[in-house]
């Protein structure tokens, strides 16, 4: 296999840091023209020098900004819905405001952006590929992550419905579900060894994921090598689910 995306336009949300940045860099290295979206202008300024493409600053928790970013991105062949937030809170202390904010970015933005991008793919008649960045938290209850777990569970179901309805247009939709990943957000939530130790001990490979581990899986699912892979939620968990 020799994955290349020459001549294709890829939209990556949440591309400023962590997994999203790694995905944007990898897709650019593989020949794609990358449209990178982030709420951080500082992150985008540095990323712009490292990719072949363009950058868009947007707060995707705002519906209008999410729609504008999707339209501004132009004719997209490959979409990666990576943008996400985590506000660690126990169930009893989760606020309505933080729950709504999490769902707005982690689920609603994916729907809003995918609707616009998929409509463009359908109009052009060439199909396309979409990958949503979910989490093992979509099916594993994690203490202090009420809103995050709920949002990723919803994202998995959204992925399946998208796959069901967009498949006839030759638009493939999949999700990847990483374990804890060594990003600024991941390390913030899992910096305490007393908390991270037991989780890592349940991973047969004995480590958390690196952003590049996720980026490699995303590139494969976007590529023509994965032409018959559709509607899946792919664990990237070092064997966590073998327990």
Automatic annotation (TrEMBL):
A Gene Ontology biological process noted in the UniProt record is:
glucose metabolic process
The organism's place on the tree of life at top rank? Bacteria
Could you tell me which residue ranges the Ketoreductase domain spans? 8-196
Keyword annotations: NADP, Oxidoreductase
The molecular function terms in GO held by this entry are: carbonyl reductase (NADPH) activity; L-xylulose reductase (NADPH) activity
Do the record's keywords include DNA repair?
A: no
Q: How does it assemble?
A: Homotetramer.
- Which family is it part of? Belongs to the short-chain dehydrogenases/reductases (SDR) family.
Q: Per its record, how is this protein called by name? A: Short-chain dehydrogenase/reductase
Q: Which organism is the protein's source? A: Dictyobacter alpinus
């Amino acid at each position: 296999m020799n994955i290349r995306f020459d001549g294709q336009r890829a939209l990556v949300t949440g591309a400023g840091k962590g997994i999203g940045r790694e995905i944007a860099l990898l897709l650019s290295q593989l020949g794609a023209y990358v449209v990178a979206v982030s709420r951080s202008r500082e992150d985008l300024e540095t990323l712009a020098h490292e990719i072949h493409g363009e950058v868009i600053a947007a707060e995707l928790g705002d519906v209008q900004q999410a729609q504008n970013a999707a339209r501004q991105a132009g004719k997209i062949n490959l979409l990666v819905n990576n943008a996400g937030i985590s506000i660690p809170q126990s169930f009893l202390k989760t606020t309505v405001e933080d729950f709504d904010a999490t769902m707005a970015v982690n689920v609603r933005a994916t729907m809003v952006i995918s609707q616009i991008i998929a409509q463009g793919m359908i109009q052009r008649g060439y199909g396309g590929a979409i990958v949503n960045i979910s989490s093992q938290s979509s099916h594993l209850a994690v203490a202090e992550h009420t809103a995050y777990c709920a949002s990723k569970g919803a994202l998995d179901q959204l992925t399946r419905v998208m796959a069901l309805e967009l498949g006839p247009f030759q638009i493939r939709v999949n999700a990847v579900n990483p374990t804890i990943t060594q990003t600024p957000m991941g390390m913030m939530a899992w910096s305490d060894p007393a908390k991270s130790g037991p989780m890592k001990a349940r991973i047969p490979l004995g480590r958390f994921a690196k952003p590049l581990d996720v980026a490699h899986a995303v590139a494969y699912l976007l590529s023509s090598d994965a032409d018959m892979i559709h509607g899946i939620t792919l664990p990237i968990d070092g064997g966590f689910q073998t327990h």
